[in-house]
Prior knowledge:
Blueprint: E1 2-4, H1 25-32, H2 36-43, H3 51-64, H4 70-77, E2 81-87, H5 93-108, E3 111-117, H6 124-132, E4 138-142, H7 145-152, E5 160-164, E6 177-179, H8 182-195, E7 202-204, H9 218-229, H10 244-255, E8 262-265, H11 268-280, E9 290-295, E10 308-311, H12 314-329, E11 344-346
Parallel strand pairs: 2-3, 2-4, 4-5, 5-6, 7-8, 8-9, 9-10
Antiparallel strand pairs: 1-6, 10-11
Helix pairs in contact: 1-2, 1-3, 5-12, 8-9, 10-11
Amino acid sequence: MHVTGHTSFGGQTAPSAGQRRPASIRDVAQAAGVSYQTVSRVINGRPNVKAETRGRVEAAVRALGFRRNATAFALASGVTRAVTVLTSNTVLHGYAATLQGLEEASRSAGYALGVRVVTPEDDLDRTVAAAAGTGGGLVVIGYDRLGAAVLDRVPAQVPCAALVEAPAPGRTPGRPAVWADDREAARTATAHLLGLGHGTVHYVALPASTGNRRTASPRAEGWRQALRSAGVTPPPPSGRGWDAQAGYEAGTRLARNPAVTAILCGNDDLALGVLRALHHAGRRVPEDVSVIGFDDAPHSAFLTPFLTTVRMDFHGLGRAAFGLLRAQLDTDRQEFAHTPAEPTLVHRESAGPRGS
């Protein structure tokens, strides 16, 4: 898993070289020559502060660019701070598990979490402006093209954290973001199938979040890298969606080709449809065709056969994304960031040696 922004995994927040640490309430107190309790009274609007003292504190706040600690303000004022999540989907496993991680992390920190589902028919600029107007900051789930478009429209001054597809090597998102290395995970899964003796691996693809080709997604790139490293020309990918129906349609086409012996699916919902299509075509799994899914959705361990898949820690990604946002809102807090687990290949029953 990877993160870019204001926190680092496994330790306290620390500015990078040349980057100044955000001012804390104690920095303001020192600059104004008062106690931090006095600074707290001023920034929380309490009346029992002399005008001259209030003026010094306010001047120090402006000079240092101090931003009030969101959690401290909520405790002192009784005002609940809110975070709004913008997402295009709440049903698919990756999105739902990410939302669960976000909700648990925000609740434990005393934040209220709201979810706004965006659709292709929405005016995205107006949607983002409305969500930002609720205060507290935004989290954008940018796993798909619509989510990526939403992220592009978030104004620079709005506190925001994002969950995104793995960026191209050497590039990082312009906003604090967290992602999983599903490019390497797909490469590993493909190499595993080749190691089982399959001459090639067919891919049932997810739509990419950026670009004009569905094959541009990190998972598709990892699949192709593994094949090319083995001297195999990648076959054309299949798939036109995210769900089991799209998987069934792609699987039906692949099942007609007796040369197809191994299939990697972009997620477990697609794999579910592929397994059904192979069954209807009389192709046995894994004796005739091996199948590997992606994400380790809850149903994957209860299919027939049990689905070999790549386990993704979406729950941990959600917690990490909230940590990135909280570091922007609570600038005087030393945040211990959550560390999501790396993607791992879960070996079950649906992948085996060619002709097993």
